[in-house]
TrEMBL record:
Oligomeric and partner information: Homodimer.
Gene Ontology annotations for the cellular component aspect, listed alphabetically: cytosol
UniProtKB keywords: Cytoplasm, Gluconeogenesis, Glycolysis, Isomerase
Name this polypeptide is given: Triosephosphate isomerase
Main localization of the protein described in the UniProt heading: cytoplasm
EC numbers, comma separated: 5.3.1.1
Cellular localization per UniProt: Cytoplasm
Single biological process term from Gene Ontology: glycolytic process
């Protein structure tokens, strides 16, 4: 696999007001300006809540930082009250779309089929899908992690054909680790990442140089380097620790490349 960038995805979920989102985006743009993200091979992606996407988009537009949307629908326009158009997300400057986050699988009732349709819609709208997969605590406890991961990855990517300039990010996020403050042991993550890589390449050899795998779940300044492993594991999603500029900066500062 030929991966150029380490992805650091800030997932702000629904945790900030519009004013707080604007302030945090401005602080991040100011404070990260001197961190040589491009030179350090880091792509930082800020995913604010939908309501603040446009405003945060205008702020990060002045910087190398990219904008991501936390969810999309699989149609661009139509009678779909309450949905998020991927075309409009792109129009507002988003370059990435989180798809199938466990919180949206739970509260938005996203199925594996929805996730599949949303990946296609993202690709059609020049959004790089960040596809989240992961097992719940019960599934982990019942030793079903491998089966769940293979099933989610297969159903997400089956029949997807990537054009020359398209790519996909797969995020392994053990559901029970998210927000717990206690990340999973990195040797377990490495094992699951290998399963994701093999499943993806088994589906279609041509994915090989067009996808990358990242990790999410209680990433912090101390454990960040456990989850950046050569060309195998090439980035993280950060939830809680991306909500304050200091904790987020420390994570990025501590990345050894
Ligand atoms: P966390 O969230 O870093 O707070 O565990 C990660 C995520 O949900 O993407």
């Amino acid at each position: 696999m030929n991966h150029k960038k380490r992805l650091i995805v800030a997932n702000w979920k629904m945790k900030l007001s519009n004013r707080e989102s604007i302030n945090l985006a401005e602080e991040i743009v100011d404070r990260f300006a001197g961190m040589y993200l491009n030179e350090r091979n880091i792509e930082m992606i800020i995913c604010p809540s939908h309501i603040s996407l446009a405003e945060v988009g205008k702020i990060v537009d002045r910087s190398p930082i990219k904008l991501g949307v936390q969810n999309i629908f699989y149609h661009n326009t139509g009678s779909y009250t309450g949905q998020i158009s991927p075309a409009v997300a792109h129009e507002l400057g988003a370059e990435y779309a989180i798809i199938g986050h466990s919180e949206f699988r739970k509260y938005g009732k996203d199925t594996n089929e929805d996730v599949h349709q949303k990946i296609k819609a993202a690709l059609d709208n020049e959004l790089v899908p960040i596809v989240c997969v992961g097992e719940t605590f019960d599934e982990y406890h019942d030793k079903k992690t491998e089966v769940i991961i293979i099933d989610q990855v297969t159903k997400a990517l089956e029949d997807i054909k990537l054009k020359e300039n398209q790519r996909i990010v797969i995020a392994y996020e053990p559901v029970w680790v998210i927000g717990s403050g206690q990340a999973i042991r990195h040797n377990i993550v490495e094992y699951i990442i290998q399963i994701i890589i093999h499943t993806t390449i088994d589906l279609d050899q041509s994915f090989a140089d067009k996808f990358q795998v990242i990790y999410g779940g209680s990433v912090d300044e101390k454990n960040i380097n456990d989850f950046i492993i050569g060309n195998i594991l090439t980035g993280v999603i950060v939830g809680n620790n991306s909500l304050k500029v200091d904790s987020f900066m420390k994570i990025v500062q501590n990345i050894k490349l």
